[in-house]
Amino acid sequence: MQKHLLALSISALSLTSSFVNAAPSAFTDARSFAMGGVGVASSQPAAASFFNPALLAVKHRDSKDGFGLIIPSANITVADEDDLIDDVDKIQQDKLFDKFSNAIDAAKANPNSANIQNAIDATNNLNTALKGINQDTARADIGAGIAIAIPGNNFAGALFIDATSKAVITTNYRDGVFLDQILTDLNNGQSGNLPSNPEDLLTSDVTGIGAGMAEAGIALATSFDMNGSPVAVGVTPKWVELVSYKYVASANKFEDNNIDSNDYETTSTEFNLDLGVAMMFGAQNEWTAGFAIRNLIPMDIKTVPGGPGLSTNTIDIKPNVKVGIAHQSDIHTIAIDLDVTPNKAFSFEDDTQLIAIGAEFNAWDWAQLRIGGRYNIASDVADDGSRGTLTTGFGISPFGVHLDVAALANQNELGVAAELGFTF
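^ thats the sequence. predicted structure below, dont judge the formating
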């Protein structure tokens, strides 16, 4: 099951009645990943196109204000709060479906007391296992990006490519009535009513839904003076490749060789825009305020039909508005970001509206220690330990070569990120 989940997410990433779902989260570089996800006012030039294009045209420390290159940055986050992966693996390892089918066939062919009891035990074992994983979920998020940035006050630009994908797998128990009837027939000595090939009549299923979004664009920015404070504006025209994936199969026939089949995918290519504004203020312009809108033009893509009633899911990408503020010096950066607009839930997850805080402590531009956290303030989220997430990481940056690693964790999620970059 774990390889199914990752394969579903990777397949979406590589393609760079209805239900509505949100798109994958925007790509996050390793520095931001370690700092709780902040970046609207605190991102460095090489990563500005991922957060706020206006930051290309604001003044950064001299060591960060030159040509920047990220090749590449990548991250992965997984969550299995219900232990779905372990539970499904155990069902498969214990061969509960085969034991059930063989026991029913034996009881139907030769209904002696031993075969009847064996069939009752096999049916109860399968029924208990399927009930135990009903509506359990597991999910994975994967992201990767590269960027080339040339910052400047009068004119600045960056080229970037990034891709993010999200996959969610859930189970649906639908065999209660069927299995209860089999138990009734077995207990009443009515083995003649037992079905042939009972495994083929089970309807409990596994649903995998994935979405991927790949972007390629150019971020442009410039700055001007407003009452003594530098103000920068930026725009990012970009091409967006959307992919959706939906695979529904009975719980005993979920096949990994179908996970990347074109029969379960849809794709769409769109044009979109990101906008950003940044303003520096303070006695030494040590404060930066940022405002960014991602995906100014709403987009959506429908999955292939699947599941009961052959329903489709709509992956909905709406404009996302963020604000942020940061305080920076040669030895530190402290930043706060806020989602102004909530993000609709993806598939079986909760809605998100994040407030994030992060800090970086810089040692002579050779090493950086980073910490952060984020909290989901969306009103409809259960307080199950997943609202808050802690993050950390460090960077090593001798002679303009940057190696950054990061990690995040909460009660349900674990994630890691890594990045190689250069600044000249």
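Helices lie at 2-14, 30-34, 48-51, 84-93, 96-109, 113-132, 176-187.
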